[in-house]
Amino acid sequence: MTTTPTPKIDQPSQPRPALLPNQRQGGFQRGWLWLAAVVVLALAAYLIWGRGHQAADGAAGKPEQTGQAASGSGKGGGKGGGKRGAFAGAGGPLPVGVAVAKAGDINIYIAGLGSVTPEATAVVKSRVDGQLMKLHFQEGQVVKAGALLAELDPRPYQVAVTQAEGQLAKDTALLQAAQIDLKRYRTLLAQDSIASQQVDTQAALVKQYEGTVKSDQGSLDSARLQLTYSRVTAPIGGRLGLRQVDLGNVVHASDTNGIVIITQLQPITTVFSIPEDNIPSVMKQIQAGKKLPTDVWDRDQKNKLDSGYLLTIDNQVDSTTGTVKLKAESPNANYALFPSQFVNARMLLDTRKDAIVIPNAAIQRGAKGTFVYVVKPDHTVTIRQVTAGPTEGESTAIDKGIATGETVVIDGIDKLKEGAKVEPVSRGGPAAAAAGSADATGAGAHKGGHRHRQDASSSAAASSDTAAAPAPAAANKSNSQ
C-alpha cells in the first residue's frame, strides 16, 4: 500500500515582528485628533447658526412688536429675548388698509360686444354701357355726394340725342302744318264752303301729330339722360375703396363689382348686443325721451375710440343667445372707427345720486353671501353682510348693510377674523409701509442667516481639510518609527 508523503510547509526565515508600543500610541493619537476636530466644527457651526437665526427672528419681530413686547425683549436679552419679541408681535394688532364709506354719484353702465357698421355703403356702377375713358378719383379718397368719379365714351349717346332732336323737329313741323290747315277748314266751314266731316278729320290729324311730338320729346329726354349717365358721380358722400376696373375697359350696367365702392364713415354706427333682462330699463329711458350716451372702446377695452348716443333698439330678441341688438351713432371725427371693426360698447343707462360707495377690494364673498369687514371704534373688526349694487371702476355702491362714515377693511383681509384687533391705516399709509419694511427686513434676515450658514459650512470644510492634512504625515512618522 502506497502512502502519500506529507507536504512540507516552509517556515519564514525570520519571525513576523510584533507591533511596537509607539505604533499603537500613534493610532490612538490620530483618533483623538479626528474627534477633537469634529467637536470644534460642530461647536462653531452651532454658534454661527444660532446667531443667524437670532438676527432673523429679531428683524421679523420688530414691525409687529408693541412697546411692551420691545421692553420684554430688552429684558430677556440674547436668543431668548429675540424669540419672545417675535411671539409678542404676532399677538399684537394687525396693520390693515381701510377706507371710509362715502356718499357719491355712481354711473350705471350696460356693456356689450359689437361691430361697427356704416350708415350707407354703395357700389358705384355705370348706368349705361361704354368704354371707361377717365377716372377722377384716387383710391381711399373722401368725396362728397355728387362728385364726378368717372367718364365713359359719350359719343354714342350724343348721336342718340341728335337723332331724337331731329325727329322731334320733324314731327313738330307736321303738327304746325296740320294746325294751320285745321284753322282754314274751320273758316271755310263757317262760310258753308266745305263739309264738317273734313274739319273733323283735320282735327284728328292735329291730335295725332301732338301725340307724336310728345313721344319725340320723351325720346329726346331719354337720350339726354343716357348721355348724363356717361358721367359717373358719387351717389353718397364717404370714403372710396379700391378701384375695381381700369381705364380702357368696357363697363356694363350689369357688372356686379362696379367701378368702386364708397362707404359713409361720418357719422358711423355701432351695433351691439345686451342681455334681454336689460330691455325694460333701456325701454324706460327711451320712452322718457332721454338720450343715452354710448362710448365705443377697442377690442381690449383700453382705448376709447369715440362717443355718441343710442339710436334705437331692435324689435325682437335673438332666441339663440337671449340678447337684443342696439344701434348707437357716433361722429367718428378722427376716423377711429372702421366698418366691420370689432369693438366694445358701453352705454350710460342712469346715474345713482348720493349712493353709499366703497372700494371694490372691501367686498368679500362667502358661503353666506357678500360681506365686508367693518372696523369698530375699539379697533376690532366685525363681519357685516351687505347688498352690493352697481359697480363703476374701482368703486361699488352698497344698497344695504353699510352707513356713510363707517370704516371698512380693504387690505390685509386674509389675516382677519371676527373680533380681530387691527391697526387701521389708509391705503398706502404708514402701516402699509411698516408691513413692507417688516417683510423686507425678514427677507434680509433670512438671507443673512442663510449666508452665515454657508460661511459656516465653508469654514467647516476648510477646518476639516486642515485637520485632515497632518494625518498622512503622522502615519508616515509612525511607519518610519
From TrEMBL:
What sequence ranges are listed for the domain Multidrug resistance protein MdtA-like alpha-helical hairpin?
161-230
Keyword Transmembrane helix on entry: yes
| Residues that span the membrane, as ranges | 31-49
Query: Does the keyword field hold Membrane?
Result: yes
Database matches in Gene3D superfamilies: 2.40.30.170, 2.40.420.20, 2.40.50.100, Helix hairpin bin (1.10.287.470)
Compositional bias (Gly residues) at which positions?
73-84
Main location as per UniProt:
membrane
| Ranges where the Multidrug resistance protein MdtA-like C-terminal permuted SH3 domain occurs | 354-415
Residue ranges of every copy of the Multidrug resistance protein MdtA-like beta-barrel domain listed in the record = 267-351
Molecular function (Gene Ontology), one example: efflux transmembrane transporter activity
Segments of this protein annotated with the region Disordered? 1-23, 57-84, 421-481
Where in the cell is the protein located? Cell membrane
Q: What's the protein called, per UniProt?
A: Efflux transporter, RND family, MFP subunit
Q: Which organism is it from?
A: Collimonas pratensis
